## 1
Amino acid sequence: MTMLSRLLRRLMALALLLAVPAGLYLGGVAPVRAYYESLVAKAGTLEDTLARYWKLGAERPQLAVALRHAEAREPDTALYLEGASDALAAARLQERLNTIVKDSGGSIDSVRVLESAPDGPYRRVSVELLIESRIDALRTILYRIETGKPSLFIKSVNITTITGIRLGRPMTEPADLDVRLEVYGFRKGVTS
């Protein structure tokens, strides 16, 4: 029995002797090492980001030259609504939209000019249209609004199918659609 207890005491002493360094490592060294490794990984990411920014910065002169050439080819005035006031710009916007819709095969049921608002150094001029068209005409209308000059933007689209009796047309023909669009453009200047 004394032999067993002596052996047990030695094993316990050895276990305590090994537990102290293991505890120090797990409690002190391992968290510091993990933190250091995370800092090394973050530094690598930051170095990659910095290299990408240096590369972009080196391209800046070429991009500035390309911008000047683009501005010389097309003055930015073609991008904005013309008009000395918001009301005149809204009238031009209505004319442009009327042309687009009619040329594309749709018809405008109503137009409502929305309140203009400042947007940075520009004025946002908006109108709401109620259009009747077929799906193929609508696709053309939306395309021409967003790709033409001046630059126009569609804020919202609400499409409903016109229901009811379709006199003189077979049911296989595409249905007419009621489309409510909010379209806006910008004009230069901050005066209304």
Note: The chain has two domains: 1-73, 79-188.
## 2
Amino acid sequence: MRYYSPVSPASAKRVPATRLFAFQEATLDRSATIIVTRDSGFLGGGCFYSFTINGVHAARFDVGETAQFHVPPGEVLLRNGRDQMGRGLCAIEKDHWVQRETVLRAGETKYFRLSLDGSGQPDVQRSDAE
């Protein structure tokens, strides 16, 4: 039985502006782009997941949502974990994060997915545009 499924950015819902906190404006010093999409499904579906870029809380994702972030070129640290603003059951293990590094060139776009591994732990993985 599969509890989650990858979602293409083209078919995902957009994260509402009220849950986007940083890296939303493209500027001369933020010329690289990261597109992030959270898997859909039952596993972990009752809670938002927080996503940070270089230590800055960038967004809260629900299942099947996508968002675009404009970041400075160079090394970027991406983190995914339980909602930093979560309460009740959604606050359990909110200090447990998975982080990945990536390097982006000016003008480059990379795609990532927020997923859960087989044991229900959050992950950040590279993905395709479709």
Note: The mean pLDDT is 87.
## 3
Amino acid sequence: MTMRWFSRMAKICALLLGYCSVAHGAAPTPISTSYCALINDPASFVGKRILVRAIYRYGFEIQRLDAAECCPGKKLKIWVEMELSDGKSKRLFKRFPREMGLARATFLGKFETGGPFGDGGYRYRLVVNQIDTVEAIGHPSEASQPPWEDRNCASENNPTHEGATSSLLHESGHADPPKSQ
């Protein structure tokens, strides 16, 4: 009986050690991608940790990513959930305008599918664990365009028209560079 008990305990300890090494092991290296690559081939990023530069738009019942640069191709809604895990990211997030706004930043998180996410209209989501950099923040406004947004983006209606503005620009507000840390 003692030998059987010892054998079982050894197996349990081995399982626990294996679990602990996986649970506390280093996270896999994230895949750095552009927003355009993400929306044009989302299936290749599902279940992976990604580093992506995009516009985070948030407000009443909205938390999503938008293009930070001209991005031809299909429109894809990506819900965002902030589950920040470090002090730097939390400090950067506190600088975002309260209640609603925009932030052009580089986010690190896990890209998932399945949904529905958010209000039910989102098939994809990015669970953000870290905010790597913040380039600019802004307040939504119909009257102005943020100076940090590319004004040479082609519009949906006329993709060859230079100087056309995207719908994001029409919704965007005044941009403020982030304050130094």
Note: The two ends are 62 Å apart (CA to CA).
## 4
Amino acid sequence: MLKKTILILGLFITLSPVMQGQIKKKSDLFLQLKRMDSIVFNEGFNNCKLNELEKIIPEDFEFYHDIGGNSGKNKFMADMKMNICSNPDKKPIRKLVVESLEVYPLYNNNALYGAIQNGVHEFWIKEANKELYKTGTAKFSTTWILIDEKWLMKNVLSFDHKAAQ
């Protein structure tokens, strides 16, 4: 029993330098990816600057949605244009639940190559002459890949969609 305990303790001590958790919310990586989330949602989703969004989506992008199925880059961009940006009189708006945002770095041989970003967001509708009203919430996980010092949104999981109470 003592041998087993020593072995487990030794393994834990050996692996603890490589075990990573969520990074600090004031770290450079966290703030960089928070800015990337802002490009996706403030620029792309909320303001329909789809050219800004398209710059950070690689050709092999994957989007998985628990209600809307899955898609690649072309369908995702077409859906954004049609479903999010086609009706300025009834415009969907996304708001990040800021305190929910988490970032987990991905390393290969001690070199940062990507990160997983998790969070919760709310969806609202903006209509002319009406107050903004909430329509629902969902969780998301985004895999960001660092290529040539540029962050690209490799894939997104959008799930646990719930209607507003």
Note: The chain has a mean pLDDT of 90.
